[in-house]
Specification:
This is 1-alkyl-2-acetylglycerophosphocholine esterase. It is a single chain. By secondary structure, the protein is of the alpha+beta class. The protein is built from three helices and two strands. Helix content is 30%, strand content 20%. Strands 1-2 form a two-stranded antiparallel ribbon. Helix 2 packs across helix 3. The longest helix has 10 residues. It is globular, with a radius of gyration of 15 Å. The protein starts with a helix and ends with a helix.
Length: 80
């Protein structure tokens, strides 16, 4: 990943006219499903930063999926 090699740990801020919104789509709820996070231009004047992880439950789900202890999800949600 180029950002990891360049020493950057965060996704760069957008420089467009609109803030970025996102929504998650999942097709099929089986072992072989498709999960997609769609980013789109939004019109929310109160939000300047992009929300890359919409809520803390994503960290816990990712930790569970990776088979790591739950406290890893707590640490990630605290850091981000």
């Amino acid at each position: 990943m180029s950002t990891a090699r360049s020493g950057h740990s965060k996704i760069p801020k957008g420089n467009g006219s609109y803030p970025v919104g996102c929504t998650d789509l999942m097709f099929g709820y089986a072992n072989e499903s498709v999960f997609l996070r769609l980013y789109y231009p939004a019109q929310d004047p109160d939000r300047l930063d992009t929300v890359w992880i919409p809520n803390k439950e994503y960290f816990f789900g990712l930790s569970k999926f990776l088979g790591t202890p739950q406290f890893i999800g707590n640490i990630l949600s605290f850091l981000y």
